[in-house]
C-alpha cells in the first residue's frame, strides 16, 4: 500500500470507470494520481494522459476462472495504491480478491460502485456480491432501487451502502438550446413533448403516441435515444396520420442539446435503473410526467408529485398530458420547482464533493 505521508498526491486505481467517473477524475485533477483499467486499454473520452493520469499497463485480466492464483495476482496489483474504485459486476473479481487478501497483503481500501440493475439477474450474482463486497469500505448506488437491492438482496451493512445520485451539469441545462440547434427545427408556435425511451419501451411509447394524438396539432412528440424504436410504432404513427408530429432523433448523445426545448417530459419506464433523463429534464426547468414509484417521488419536486401516473393505467397519462398541455402557467411553475430541486440535490459540484468526502474517509486522508 502506498505510503500516506510520501508527499505525493494519493494514488487511486479505477477499475472499469464510467463516463461520470471520467468527469469526476477530471474534476479532481492533480489532487489525485489516477490509474485506469479500461476494456480497451484507452482513456475514456475527455481525458488526456498526464503525469497524474494514465492507463494500467500490465493489470491482470478481469475475466477468468476464480482460481486462487489469479485472485492473488489481482490483489498484488492493488498494492501500490491508496484507494481502489471498482465499477459494475464486471469488476467484482477485483473486489473478491480484495476481500480474500486485504489483511494478508495490507491492501488499500476499496469502494465499489453499482450504476444500474443487472442485465442478467440471478441467484449466482446475488451471492457473489454478498461475498465479494465483504471487506469493501463502501458500496455506492445511485438511487433507492439499487439501495434496497444492496441492503436486502446483497445483505450489505447499512453503514457501507452510500446512496450518491448521478451528477448533473445544472449550469449547462440552464442554457436553453436554440430552436434550430438540431437537425429538427422547433418552429414558432410548436410545443414539444419529449421522452427518452429504452429499446424495450415500445408498448409504452405506443401509448404515448395515442395520448399525443388527442392534443392540438401544435403539439409534437420528439423521441431521442436508441435506434429501433421508430419501427416499433411506425405503423401506428401512419394509422393516426402523425408523421409530421412524431420525430425521432436517433443517435443524439448529449441531452443538453435538447432537454431545454421540451415543454413536457414523459418517463415511460417504472423500473429500468436510475431515471437520469428525468433529472436532466428537471434541470432544464421542464415539468415531468412519470410512473409513480418511490424512486421518482424522491426525485421530482413536491409540486410535481400529483402529476405522477399509474403505469398500469394509460388513461391517467393521457388525462395528465392533456391537462398540462392546456396550462402554460402550470408548466412553468412545475418546471421552476423541478429546476430548484435538481440544483439542490443533483448539482455536479455537490455530488462530486460528496464523492470526495467518501473517498477521503476511506483513505483516512484528505485531498
Q: What attributes characterize this protein structure?
A:
367 residues, alpha/beta, Rossmann fold, 2 domains, six-stranded parallel sheet, 13 helices, 13 strands, 39% helix, 15% strand, elongated
Q: What can you tell me about this protein's structure?
A:
With 367 residues, the chain is α/β, with parallel strands linked by helices. The protein has two domains: 11-167 and 348-363, Rossmann fold (3-Layer(aba) Sandwich); 170-346, Rossmann fold, CATH 3.40.50.2000. Helices cover 39% and strands 15% of the residues. It is built from 13 helices and 13 strands. The strands form two sheets. A seven-stranded parallel sheet has the order 3-2-1-4-5-6-7, with helices on both faces. The chain is elongated and about 70 Å long.
- The computed structural class is alpha/beta
Q: How is the CATH topology of the largest domain named? A: Rossmann fold
As a whole number of angstroms, the C-alpha radius of gyration is: 23 Å
Q: What is the CATH homologous superfamily assignment of the largest domain? A: Glycogen Phosphorylase B
Q: Could you say how many structural domains there are in total? A: 2
Tell me the fraction of residues in β-strands, as a range: 5-15%
Number of strands: 13
What's a quick, concise take on this entry?
The protein is elongated and about 70 Å long. The chain has helices spanning about 20-30, 70-80, 90-105, 125-130, 145-155, 170-175, 200-215, 230-240, 275-285, 295, 315-325, 330-345, 350-365, and strands at about 10-15, 35, 55, 85, 110-115, 140, 160-165, 190-195, 220-225, 245-250, 265, 290, 310. Helices cover about 40% and strands about 15% of the residues.
Amino acid at each position: 500500500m502506498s505510503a500516506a505521508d510520501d508527499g505525493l498526491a494519493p494514488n487511486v486505481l479505477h477499475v472499469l470507470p464510467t463516463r461520470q467517473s471520467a468527469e469526476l477524475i477530471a474534476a479532481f485533477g492533480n489532487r489525485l494520481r489516477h490509474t485506469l483499467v479500461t476494456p480497451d486499454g484507452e482513456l475514456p473520452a475527455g481525458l488526456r494522459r498526464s503525469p497524474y493520469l494514465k492507463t494500467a499497463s500490465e493489470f491482470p485480466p478481469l475475466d477468468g476462472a476464480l482460481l486462487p492464483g489469479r485472485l492473488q495476482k489481482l490483489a498484488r496489483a492493488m498494492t501500490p495504491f491508496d484507494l481502489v474504485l471498482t465499477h459494475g459486476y464486471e469488476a467484482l473479481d477485483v473486489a473478491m480478491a480484495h476481500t480474500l487478501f486485504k489483511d494478508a497483503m495490507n491492501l488499500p481500501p476499496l469502494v465499489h460502485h453499482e450504476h444500474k440493475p443487472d442485465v442478467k439477474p440471478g441467484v449466482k450474482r446475488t451471492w457473489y456480491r454478498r461475498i465479494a463486497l465483504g471487506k469493501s469500505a463502501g458500496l455506492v448506488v445511485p438511487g433507492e432501487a439499487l439501495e434496497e437491492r444492496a441492503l436486502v438482496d446483497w445483505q450489505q451493512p447499512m453503514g457501507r451502502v452510500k446512496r450518491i445520485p448521478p451528477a448533473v451539469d445544472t449550469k449547462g441545462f440552464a442554457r436553453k438550446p436554440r430552436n434550430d440547434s438540431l437537425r429538427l427545427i422547433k418552429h414558432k408556435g410548436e410545443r414539444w413533448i419529449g421522452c427518452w425511451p429504452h429499446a424495450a419501451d415500445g408498448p409504452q411509447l405506443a401509448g404515448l403516441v395515442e395520448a399525443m394524438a388527442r392534443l392540438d396539432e401544435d403539439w409534437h412528440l420528439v423521441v431521442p435515444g436508441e435506434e429501433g424504436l421508430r419501427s416499433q410504432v411506425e405503423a401506428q404513427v401512419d394509422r393516426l396520420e402523425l408523421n409530421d408530429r412524431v420525430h425521432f432523433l436517433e443517435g443524439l448523445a448529449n441531452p443538453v442539446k435538447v432537454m431545454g426545448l421540451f415543454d413536457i417530459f414523459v418517463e415511460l419506464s417504472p423500473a429500468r435503473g436510475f431515471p437520469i433523463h428525468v433529472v436532466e429534464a428537471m434541470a432544464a426547468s421542464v415539468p415531468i410526467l412519470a410512473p409513480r414509484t418511490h424512486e421518482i417521488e424522491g426525485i421530482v419536486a413536491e409540486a410535481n408529485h400529483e402529476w405522477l401516473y399509474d403505469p398500469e393505467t394509460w388513461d391517467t397519462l393521457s388525462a395528465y398530458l392533456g391537462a398540462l398541455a392546456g396550462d402554460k402557467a402550470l408548466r412553468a411553475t412545475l418546471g421552476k420547482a423541478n429546476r430548484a430541486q435538481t440544483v439542490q440535490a443533483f448539482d455536479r459540484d455537490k455530488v462530486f464533493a460528496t464523492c470526495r468526502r467518501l473517498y477521503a474517509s476511506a483513505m483516512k486522508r484528505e485531498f
